[in-house]
Amino acid sequence: MTSADYDPACLPDLLPLYYRRLFPFSQYYRWLNYGGVQKNYFQHREFSFTLKDDIYVRYQSFSTQGELEKEMQKMNPYKIDIGAVYSHRPNQHNTVKSGTFQALEKELVFDIDMTDYDDVRSCCSAADICHKCWTLMTIAIHILDRALREDFGFHHLLWVYSGRRGVHCWVCDEAARKLSVAARSAVAEYLSLVKGGDETVRKVVLSDPIHPFIGESLAVVKRYFPQYALHSQDVLGNKVSVDKVLALSEKNPEKRWSRLETHAFNKQKGNVKKGQYFEKEIMLQYCYPRLDVNVSKGVNHLLKSPFSVHPKTGRISVPIDLKQLDKFDPFDVPTISLICEELDRPRVGEEDEQVDSKEKGSDMDTMERRRIRDYKRTSLAKYVKILDQFLDGVAQSHKGELLKRSGELKTRMGSALVE
Amino acid sequence: MLILLVIIIIGTGGPGRYRWPWPVPVGLAGTGGPGRYRWAQYGQSLCPNNLQKKSHISSSSSSPTRATSYLAWTRGSTDDGYTETASIAAVPARRDEAKRRPASSFFFSSFFFVFFFKQKKKGERKENPLRSDRSVTRTMQFGSRQRKLIANPQTELYRHCLQFYAQPPLENISLTEFETFAVERLKLLKTVENLGVSYVKSSDQYTNKLDSEFSNLHFPYKTEVDDKKPHIGPSEYEKRRKDHISHFILRLAYCQTEDLRRWFIQQEVDLFRYRFNCLNSKSKTQFLHHNNLHYDTVSLEEKKVLSEKLINSSYAGSACKVEEQDFYKVPFQDALDLVRTRKVYLKAGYVYIPHQDIVIIVLNDFRTRLSKALALTARSLPTVLSDERLQPLLSHLSHAYVGQDYSIQKSVGKISLEQIDLLAGKSFPLCMRQLHQSLRETHHLRHGGRMQYGLFLKGIGLTLEQALQFWRSEFTKGKVDMDKFDKAYAYSIRHMFGKEGKRTDYTPYSCMKVILSNPPSQGDHHGCPFRHSDAELLKQKLQSYKVSPSGIAQILDLVKGMHYQLACQKYFELTHNIEDSGFSLNHPNQYFLESQKLLGGGREVKREVDPPQRGPDAAVKQPPNPQALAEMTEDLDAYFQDG
């Protein structure tokens, strides 16, 4: 049996080990505490656990990192979701008057799911993915990452592989966390180009003028389209898929011809008439990221947490390194069985220190140090490092924020003294 | 600044319609004899900072049964740093008011109290034109018939035909006026809502219809103040006053729940947009100036650099136009409508708005302020509602907006599951028919579809047990087994019926909701087929439902003009073989009921297929109204029946 083999039946045995020795609690806490800039930010955060047999426990909250660890090691959740920061501690939501318990803030999140591309990929369907269609996710990340940074001015974007068939994005800037529902949906709609359900054939309709955002996105799509659509997916290779492509251009054969004609005519003359964008529309319909808008809209919407295990595939939900985005391979992402096995491998050239059962519950620091040593021996290490780097970036902003505040305080005190 | 609305009621039982069943002071005053109110009690309970108010009230009324009811607003503030005195003056009621009343009650109505605070206050003067001129303390002149614009403390407030409603009205008004104003504004907002669904917001039809509604209801619009022209009907001042006061009354009625606030804000914002767009550019500038709205403009150099992008991201036109036009740079959060539709250039979190679209930023300001104000009003609402005369009025006003919500299940348990297939073909609107069909075909619906269809079924009378059985039997024919259904789907169905979670009894979606919110995406079948289908597919679908080619052409024309509800209504008429359906469609459940009514008196049809279950006595029963409410609400009902 190779190490990557994962059997869902083993999950109950592996999870305790994972939460006890591998889960990066300190980075996790460091992330969600956001430098302690806002009081009770971590304490008022909702966590929700999915336990064995799909038992769903909402409104969990913890006052310290230790409490979170203890609870997770006790419950051994199959899946962890992160929700909003509420006005009160979520675990006490029943004790406050109804209506006063409200979701206040959350990261702006995006969820891109491969199932939403089923009408334009021929290699797999539903929950399956392969290297061919993964290109769609790469395109999606390139497009959205650029737009969120350059257009919306966000800096701290954490991209995470969901563990099975999609990716999530956590926009962690303070401004993003404070966005209203209306603002979130406006951002999501700005970023959505492919519209319509099964009742719509032509899902991308461009009109003049082409917005700079669409222009930028098209540039990304163009980079990938020939290799991805024409070779991997072979959209012009067989009759069925050719028909699908043609259906997008024009229904009526006469009109279709005349459109081709004008297009050819314009090509010859070297001027493209306004409103003739159907090749662009086709490219976008096949490659443009398809967002689950509802996930992004709601402040209180839950999203699977990074470093949660996907119960079906056993893969850990890991952050994606944008610098090596094109090399990211979802099938390389370690499964829980792999990293647990790596943990059990005898260490080379290092003193073997067994975790003594007596030591359990002893000093936090030793536990922490041991855990760090533990995950560093597994293939989880490089992903924790990505999170670390991300958090360093976030911390820089906090520093600025805190400095600004103390600066304001000083000037205020100073002026008071002068007076 | 906190604006508080205080409503004082003086006397009882207005002339005419309202005969209040209780004697004056009970429930209001407690300790002050008949017609005497402990004003301070109100004042203090409403002012969190416990402002010292020297306030006295005396009343001339001796016979409570004949006095007239008055309401008065006063303004308080939580800001520290100003002193205030209260002055009281007894002044006669406005003559036009008196005219409306029977002579016998004139004496009692001729005194009311004007109550002003003189304020000295730091800061915030900008926002408050009333405060900045020192004319805050003023009493109306005895017998001042001439209500010239200049002669009134509120002149400053009414100097422009459009306002931000920053100041609450300070004068006293009668209950009659209170009600009339409220109802008329509500009618206006209803019109705004209906037109917004049927027409494009900038189209001629939209403008024309709204125009005529404005003049019918005597609300101010477009016209500049022109005292020289002889007026027909109410003067511009009165219109503006009505606009002002009615807005504040509806704030009271619509601040109570999230839903009400959302609806009210939406309609007020649409109304404001329309009115702002009607202004000429001079009065727009004036308006901005009056309200101290200043926005950052983009420098010429920056414009040159971004020129191409600015051109491509708006409809601003050519390069030279970009250079001569002002562009405003605001955080993207302040122009969400432009961001959403990608009608603006966005860079590093800022949007670059051409001058012609400035209405968007102004609207955003308006929306934010209104939303904040409503939240504040909601906080002081309990005191207002403790008055038993206002409470039913306000609550009825707020219920009037949706019309029927089809959640009252008159017909619970009257439909059997076997009937659904038949009914889907005969009486379901296209959206539900489509959902039903895809459910039967794929044995699955995604969340959006389950909600839209599930609540519709609940609305036509499926019980919880029936609903569970219905969904389970269909889903288990597909990929879902019993166990998974009970775990993953049964909860949400019970939730729909208010049996889980926060136990809200959800109401079926209206056409508005279906058309405007949560559009379908890949794999979804919900939404409005007229709105969310390709014309070609819609055509095929209609053909397969045996709609005549000429009918299809008519429907497609309506769809092209974005009249989705009218298209649906046309579909109703065509499938029911009638010329004119005689109702205005705004709810899928309404479609169903109307269809059932038409197909042989509704209940009869049902009885045909489902004979023994119910007798006709289980038919429509009006929910029992409290007696006191009944009389008053009758009028209001009449207003909104056709709405």
Automatic annotation (TrEMBL), chain A:
InterPro entries: DNA_primase_S (IPR002755), DNA_primase_ssu_euk/arc (IPR014052). The keyword Transferase applies. It holds the Pfam family DNA_primase_S. GO terms for biological process: DNA replication initiation; DNA replication, synthesis of primer. One of its GO terms (cellular component) is alpha DNA polymerase:primase complex. Its cofactor is Mn(2+); Mg(2+). Its EC number is 2.7.7.-. GO terms for molecular function: DNA-directed RNA polymerase activity; metal ion binding. Keywords: DNA replication, DNA-directed RNA polymerase, Metal-binding, Nucleotidyltransferase, Primosome, Transcription, Transferase, Zinc. It comes from the Eukaryota. It catalyses: ssDNA + n NTP = ssDNA/pppN(pN)n-1 hybrid + (n-1) diphosphate. Belongs to the eukaryotic-type primase small subunit family. This is DNA primase. The gene is PRIM1.
From TrEMBL, chain B:
Keywords: 4Fe-4S, DNA replication, DNA-binding, Iron, Iron-sulfur, Metal-binding, Primosome, Signal. InterPro entries: DNA_primase_C (IPR058560), DNA_primase_lsu_euk (IPR016558), DNA_primase_lsu_euk/arc (IPR007238). GO terms for biological process: DNA replication initiation; DNA replication, synthesis of primer. Pfam families: DNA_primase_lrg, DNA_primase_lrg_N. Residues 423-592 form the DNA primase large subunit C-terminal domain. Belongs to the eukaryotic-type primase large subunit family. This is DNA primase large subunit. The gene is Prim2.
